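User: I'm writing a short report section on ligand binding and want a predicted complex to refer to. Could you take this sequence and BJW and write out the structure as tokens? A short remark afterwards would be nice.
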Amino acid sequence: MRVVVLTGAGISAESGIPTFRGPDGLWEGHRVEDVATPEAFVRDPEFVHRFYNMRRNKLLSPEIQPNAAHIALANFEARPGIEFLLITQNIDDLHVRAGSKNVLPMHGELLKARCLDTGELFPWREDLSMGTPHPKHPERLGRLRPHIVWFGEVPLGMDQIEDAAHRADLFLAIGTSAVVYPAAGIVQWTKPSCRRVEINMEATPQSNRFHESLRGPASQLVPKYLDEL
Ligand code: BJW
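Assistant: Sure. The structure tokens for the complex follow:
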């Protein structure tokens, strides 16, 4: 069986990471759409660095851990006879920490920095600023940005995502509001015989494309659904 899973911020909410469009979704009064853009970074790079520094520090604090939904997906992937791809919109590393292997972080990774000049990636756990020296060329300052896909930039791995979606027998969307494209449209690339299941707290603009919509917290519904499969 070929299984493709798409996760969003809702799966990490119960691990203590706020969603984007929920009540805690604003950062210093700004919507993510105003901070997570290349234009915002050009206009005020220190402001954008502060946003990601705050989130990186939180992600690395001991209280942030994978929850039962992350763990259930990792255990499911290890079952025999399953071809599995976990596409995540999340920039946290909770799926990997839970033990998932075939993870595609389509909106980037908070624990990596990218060179603005060459695109080279570096594992990154510290704060970034316009004074941060380049790891290989310490005389160059402020040439690193967070390895994040901002609005207007093309998400990572789109060819692999499209191919996997076309071939999937089961497509599961978990904890995403389905308003950000192209992620929200992946369900439309699945074949007619593919079983499509949405697990979310609330209905989304894509809910009518799924055979089943299960409403409730991911930490309860994901283990239950996968156990019964
Ligand atoms: C729970 C739960 C629990 C809570 N259990 N559930 C007009 C129309 C259509 C498209 C566009 C348009 N204008 C511009 C666009 C394109 C744009 C876009 O889609 N904009 C829309 C906002 C309108 N997209 C882009 O720009 C993308 N690039 C692009 O399109 O390039 C062109 C191209 C593509 C492909 C091929 C060729 C060309 C890039 C998008 C980048 C998104 N980046 C962000 C921020 C960066 C990462 C970061 O800083 O963290 O990624 S935006 C933000 O939203 C983040 C998320 O990954 C993304 C999705 O959010 P998500 O995960 O769905 O979270 P929420 O908060 O929205 O929802 C959580 C859900 O969970 C809720 O429903 C809750 O109910 C639920 N929930 N607790 C279960 N316990």
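A remark for your report: The beta strands are 2-7, 83-88, 103-105, 108-115, 121-123, 144-148, 170-174, 195-200, 212-215. Residues 169 and 193 are 7 Å apart (CA to CA).
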